[in-house]
Amino acid sequence: MARTGSNNKRNQKYEVVLNDEQISFLKALLSMNETTLTIKKRALILLALHKDSGKNLTHRQIAESLDVSISTVHCTVKRFVDLGFDECITIHRNPRQNNVCKIQGDQQARLVRLACSAAPQGHSSWSLQLLRDKAVELKIIEPVAVETVRSALKKMNCSLTKTNTGASPQSKMQSS
Questions:
Q1: Are residues 84 and 9 part of one domain?
Q2: Is position 163 within any domain?
Q3: Do 22 and 84 belong together in one domain?
Q4: Most buried in the list 14, 41, 66, 131, measured by CB within 10 Å?
Q5: What was the pLDDT predicted at 164?
Q6: Are residues 12 and 84 in the same domain?
Q7: Residue 63 near residue 69, CB atoms below 8 Å
Q8: Which of 29, 54, 88 is the last residue of a domain?
Q9: What is the residue range of 139's domain?
Q10: Residue 169 pLDDT more than 70?
């Protein structure tokens, strides 16, 4: 159960009140190896702020003891009050977020081959935009952002610069 103290939104005080079942559940979460660090920190915040815990810690003290920011403590309490216990101890991933690279396997190999080829007439070297546009024209890849091409080349350890820029040493390949 959660209570709020003031009608003024800016000075609103949130009070964390947990029942015995919730307390035992949080303690069980803390002892499990599979529990993520984020959920463990939220559980510790809720247990520390529980009204009947006997502790009278401020948000700042809790943040310092758990090595989190004060806003993490505030947001955890606000989430508990606004959304409830179950939502507070759950991490929601964005279902629209797709962490799979859009250029994979054969496409990456063909893109690297294109990047290693001679630059188009009128250009001294390939730029990411030129490379992307040519790869789309040759139907190697679907239209994607330049950043997607850059990250695909980076994964393949391919650089568009002809010389060492000094950022990192280039490895020399041995000829057979």
A1: yes
A2: no
A3: yes
A4: 131
A5: 47
A6: yes
A7: yes
A8: 88
A9: 106-155
A10: no
Give yes or no: residues 77 and 110 share one domain.
no
The reply to whether 51 falls in a domain is yes
Mean of the pLDDT values across residues 48-77? 87
Whether residue 49 is contained in a domain is answered as: yes
Residue among 101, 43, 109, 30 nearest 77 (CA): 43
Q: What are the residues whose beta carbons fall under 8 Å from the beta carbon of 148, sequence distance 6 or more?
A: 101, 102, 103
Residue with tokens 């209570």: 3
3-state SS track over the chain: CEEECCCCCCCCCEEECCCHHHHHHHHHHHHCCCCCHHHHHHHHHHHHHEHHHCCCCCHHHHHHHHCCCHHHHHHHHHHHHHHCHHHHCCCCCCCCCCCCCCCCCHHHHHHHHHHHCCCCCCCCCCCHHHHHHHHHHCCCCCCCCHHHHHHHHHHCCCCCCCCCCCCCCCCCCCCC
- Tokens matching residue 5: 């103290």
Q: What is the CATH number of the domain that holds 59?
A: 1.10.10
What is the C-alpha separation between 103 and 155, in angstroms, rounded?
10
User: At which residue do the structure tokens 């035992």 appear?
Assistant: 24
Task: Give a yes or no: residue 93 inside a domain.
Answer: no
